[in-house]
Amino acid sequence: MEWLIRMKEAMDYMESKMTEPLRIEDVAGIAHVSPFHFQRMFSMLTGFTVADYIRKRRLTLAAQELASSRIRVLDVALKYGYDSPESFAKAFRKAHGLTPSAAREPGVQLKAFPRLSFHLSLKGDQEMEYKIVDKPAFNVIGKSIQVTCKDGENFRRIPEFWNECNEDGTSDELIGLASEEAWLGICMSMDMEKDLLSYWVGVKADEAADPHGYEKGTVPAASWAVFTSKGPLPDTLQAVWQRIYQEWFPGTGYQHAGGPEIELYPPGDTTAEDYVCEVWIPVVKK
């Protein structure tokens, strides 16, 4: 319940600052969590990044103001954080399908993005097993993409990327170079302010073992919360991710540590009812 109250207060603060500069550090401080943890929690719970949500709310409020008053378009643009009428008009057209001036026409239909609220569902009918594992830094090799989180694009593009790697032989080649027999899906870095993440299909391997010139990276040492998923992909795994952020984080004394997130996929039939894979999330105790 304390978590729910803090999130509500953070949302109230965001709503009160829609016409003012808004720092994620201040929002996260109200929720008593780190900026990264707040943004990751928000994104996983709502399907929107904080920046995307604020942008949609501001354009909704701007449209309502244009439709109900004679305020100049320039003044509305400045009020809601746009530095020019051109940038405002471009964003407005993308959101509403028409120009800011057209929003004043009688009977015009505008799109509204409602304010979100959080509700904690206490199910209690299924235990969530996890373990905390301390692991030193390790090297990975693989192939990566930069993908935006806007409008859920990452949920579409990442499965496509996996299909591409499976079809062009990248996955098979990587597992042949791995020091441990498992593929890794790694959210290597996440820039929540820019709505971008770097996603890797990779394996744990020493870079000297790679004759093919794959990208190389290091996963830093961390304490990891490890969750098991049993069942066909992707539905079972997606359900585990939802429970981690909807139930586990709010109900424990842990926060996201801000490092890479990992999905570990052992060889096997990923469509089988007994297929087992894991989610690894770096955490710190509050």
TrEMBL record:
Pfam families: GyrI-like, HTH_18
Coiled coil segments of this chain: none
Keyword annotations of the record: DNA-binding, Transcription, Transcription regulation
Residues covered by the HTH araC/xylS-type domain: 8-106
Domain of life: Bacteria
MF-aspect GO terms: DNA-binding transcription factor activity; sequence-specific DNA binding
PROSITE patterns: HTH_ARAC_FAMILY_1, HTH_ARAC_FAMILY_2
Protein name: AraC family transcriptional regulator
